[in-house]
Amino acid sequence: MNSDIDIAYGSQMKPISEIAKDLLLTEQDWEPYGHYKAKLSQQILDKLADEPNGKIILTTSINPTPAGEGKSTVTVGLGQALNQLNKKAVIALREPSLGPTMGVKGGAAGGGYSQVLPMEDINLHFTGDLHAITTANNALSAFIDNHIHQGNELHIDPRRVEWKRVLDLNDRSLREVVVGLGGASKGVPRQDGFNITVASEMMAILCLANDLQDLKERLSRIFIGYTYERDPVTVKQLGFEGSLTLLLKNAMKPNLVQTIENTPAIIHGGPFANIAHGCNSLVATKTAAKLGDFVVTEAGFGADLGAEKFLNIKTRAGGFEPDTVVIVATIRALKMHGGLNKNQLHEESVDALERGISNLKKHMETIVQFNLPFVIAINQFPLDTEKELKFLTNWCASQGAEVSIVEVFAKGGKGGIDLAKKVIKSCATKTGYMKYTYELENSIEEKIVKIATNVYGAGRVEFTSTAKKQLMLLNKHGHDQLPICMAKTQYSLSDDPTLIGRPHGFTITVRQLTASVGAEFIVALTGDVMTMPGLPKKPAALNMDVKEDGRITGLF
Amino acid sequence: MNSDIDIAYGSQMKPISEIAKDLLLTEQDWEPYGHYKAKLSQQILDKLADEPNGKIILTTSINPTPAGEGKSTVTVGLGQALNQLNKKAVIALREPSLGPTMGVKGGAAGGGYSQVLPMEDINLHFTGDLHAITTANNALSAFIDNHIHQGNELHIDPRRVEWKRVLDLNDRSLREVVVGLGGASKGVPRQDGFNITVASEMMAILCLANDLQDLKERLSRIFIGYTYERDPVTVKQLGFEGSLTLLLKNAMKPNLVQTIENTPAIIHGGPFANIAHGCNSLVATKTAAKLGDFVVTEAGFGADLGAEKFLNIKTRAGGFEPDTVVIVATIRALKMHGGLNKNQLHEESVDALERGISNLKKHMETIVQFNLPFVIAINQFPLDTEKELKFLTNWCASQGAEVSIVEVFAKGGKGGIDLAKKVIKSCATKTGYMKYTYELENSIEEKIVKIATNVYGAGRVEFTSTAKKQLMLLNKHGHDQLPICMAKTQYSLSDDPTLIGRPHGFTITVRQLTASVGAEFIVALTGDVMTMPGLPKKPAALNMDVKEDGRITGLF
């Protein structure tokens, strides 16, 4: 099989003007960024405000394993399949982060014959949105440190600045730093740290803002830390909400590209789902829903992370709900959840599959809790045996669940036709409104306990003494009505990455609580999860090159 | 008078496709970035290799003062004036850095009726080149720290890593930092610092590379620090030259925009001239010379900084030389060099002017040393008196120098017609080859002494003990044949910003010498110059805003 980049080079893209024309966009609605990318104007939403919305299909998965589930690939393939059935489908995805691209993944734009293109641009700097977010975030840090250095009129306590710097890279050495060293001309020394851009509140704000004015208001409300008197300090007090809005003005516009089969795809915003809220931007999803009869969108990692936050945070901010959910699983990953290691995956093992299926079952139950219909998509791999596939489909049938075996990696949309038909049917079965996991009026603890017990299946929740102190402050400052953005390992339903399958009776430990007042959620850090990843010993970047003819290798 | 942004909004841009068409570019030669910006393909240079080059006009100035000289404005106005005379002119400028834009300047794209457009895009993220450079630079830092953390096979001494991180912001708190704190999972602690992106070797490499393969070779040669055994370590040993080239692939393409009078302008690369080599990219200048009969290009700050490095570094890397030089001066700035302070500038003072003219005289002598013709452009301001203007023009005539009073800020190209005519004539007066200030075969000390005495007018050069040690290492590792990139205050011919006018007999203190092996020069830090600026008490960003209709305010 060819590599993703070879398949990408071998495919025929349409000029982005044609993709835009097929969506009935006028010249005022979009701007080209090269011949195959475009930025969409926010006036599209104003213009089409009274038009009906397309059906929204949310793709999620079981807890990921090193075997890979191919959720993005299934999302792209499903969009292509819907188009092959002559349904007007638009795909809505997140922008990849350079951290994992350079680190472990080497690219994140689907795979095989279900990719978004131009994959090399999407995987690298794309239209610069993440860089704009990095810049706005770090400009605010510079403004804060400058304020402290130049007289500190607001009495900001340098020990209590909570706003961190960011880079869109995996760089463990920046997790904890001391800045402002070197004497009086070099600022005020204080402890600081860098998050990866995709874990930042700035990213979340861009993704959850409804328009430019909402963006500015959210930016002005950002809580950056405390004064010596322990009063919270906001961006509005510093006076930089206008310049930060300016820095994010173009990044607020969703990006239009296409798949390998010329299905339109809107790629915009890129929060991670383990350490952030994990969904593409609200503006992108809303725009896609105006332009397509079906929107296929993805939330990161398993249903415990991305989908939970999509449903409890993003749908609240946007005032919509999905029509159905696709849960992606693979035989390989389920066998790993059943206890096999990576070297044993080539062996047929219905036993391991049967044990691992418990992970899938929990995520199915979670979607039912939300009162949403779902279809299970089994992303077929070459070594899956007939016996294993049959066992899994029979099991799904025994649970009364719709299931489809997809081959979108090898066959593109054609490999997802059956899934597409079942998804269309599933949208029609939705009855009544979606149910949230918690009410905003619940206390912060209650909300966290409900997520942990109902979505993760935890026995109990423990708050560290630090988290308890922070809880008091959050209540004191009136942030108790916000939804919760859990930061948790993606590898387990619990906060311990080694607990695979469906663990029971475990404890979720909340070690830190911070208010993202601009993004409008409380971030709860659990277990050992870190908001700045590290690089592996041999980063994916080692394989990357640009040949003399300009061709790229090593992005896959 | 309207603000720059108001004038910009009031002007009529042509679609960039028309500007490209006027330059006889085909569709394969360029890619749109929005409707008014384009990236130019490197194939233009291949295609036009055998075509003659246009005349190259280098704009420089006296030492800047808080009164401002308007060098970019004159550069743009001169290009417009040449076009009004039906000469095919292309302007070649640097990309503004967000550091000064957010900090002190609020924009850097010319001014009044001599601006490049769209000024708000050019002043903000533009086409993302600076962000790509920031990312490549910091990816390398992450790769270095990861290598040390993961076993340190190359024996890199964490105390002797010379490669620094960067951000394209003014942020004094990042000048000296400690990274890798927080325990074993958070890297190896070491001292580090951030430069502003535009002072980085990564920026210089992009600006001096002839093509993508030259870029990769330069990247592979970057010297990042020493091993415990004091052997130098390069990027090639780490193996990341391919991925860094990939990150810079699109940033290597020059950007095409237009002026307020639709004169084509290529804006690419943005090294500062006080702490870097201060010229736009080689690829941009070469492309402009193939597309225009006249190229008007600018080197940063006074002739002691940008022009010296343009002539001794950039022309060597590119194998070309300018045909004439324009030296920009203002009555106001010359009066400040004559001892007036900012509040006294409204007073007529031929005395102060006469004293301050010594600064202009030194820069004229410098250009003569290079064996280049020049024209003096007096950028007229509203409060300049007839007596002052007359004194200055008479003085120029007494020196046998061509001089022209320009009003390009208020009148656009029309205000620079006389200058344009004199510049065209001046190009024809060039005789013989340009003379460099030093030969590459000179020792590092000799080269620095020649720059200091001949270009700055210094009495002597002192090397600190640190600099002396570094000198020994540079010689030992065979870097003594490289040209010199001086880092010096822009405000004085000396390394003391308070010595205005034309100081004599001063000492230049070299306190640090580092090899930029990829960029192919030695950086010599003099005086107190810093490679990461700070923000003023009230940053320009405080005035910036985006109004409800999407209009920008506060960029001027």
Give the secondary structure arrangement, pairings included.
The structure is a homodimer of 556-residue chains.
Chain A: H1 4-10, H2 16-22, E1 30-32, E2 38-40, H3 43-47, E3 55-61, H4 71-84, E4 89-93, H5 98-105, E5 110-111, E6 114-117, H6 119-123, H7 129-149, E7 156-161, E8 165-167, E9 177-179, E10 190-192, E11 194-196, H8 201-208, H9 212-221, E12 223-227, E13 232-234, H10 235-238, H11 241-248, E14 255-259, E15 264-267, H12 282-291, E16 294-298, H13 303-318, E17 324-329, H14 331-337, H15 350-369, E18 374-379, H16 386-398, E19 402-406, H17 408-411, H18 417-429, H19 444-456, E20 460-463, H20 465-476, E21 484-487, E22 507-516, E23 521-526, E24 545-546, E25 552-553
Parallel strand pairs in A: 3-16, 3-17, 4-15, 4-16, 8-11, 17-18, 18-19, 20-22, 21-23
Antiparallel strand pairs in A: 1-2, 2-14, 5-6, 6-14, 7-12, 9-10, 12-13, 14-15, 22-23, 24-25
Helix pairs in contact in A: 4-18, 7-11, 9-11, 14-15, 15-16
Structural summary, described in words:
Two copies of one chain form a homodimer. Chain A folds into three domains: 260 residues, Rossmann fold (3-Layer(aba) Sandwich); 119 residues, Domain 2, N(10)-formyltetrahydrofolate synthetase, CATH 3.30.1510.10; 83 residues, Formyltetrahydrofolate synthetase, domain 3 (Roll). Chain A contains 20 helices and 25 strands. In chain A, helix 9 crosses helix 11 and helix 14 crosses helix 15. Chain A is an alpha/beta fold and 556 residues long. In chain A, strands 1, 2, 3, 4, 5, 6, 14, 15, 16, 17, 18 and 19 form a twelve-stranded mixed sheet that branches. In chain A, strands 20-22-23-21 form a four-stranded mixed sheet. Chain A is globular, with a radius of gyration of 23 Å. At the A-B interface, helix 7, strand 9, helix 9, helix 11 and strand 24 of A face helix 7, strand 9, helix 9, helix 11 and strand 24 of B.
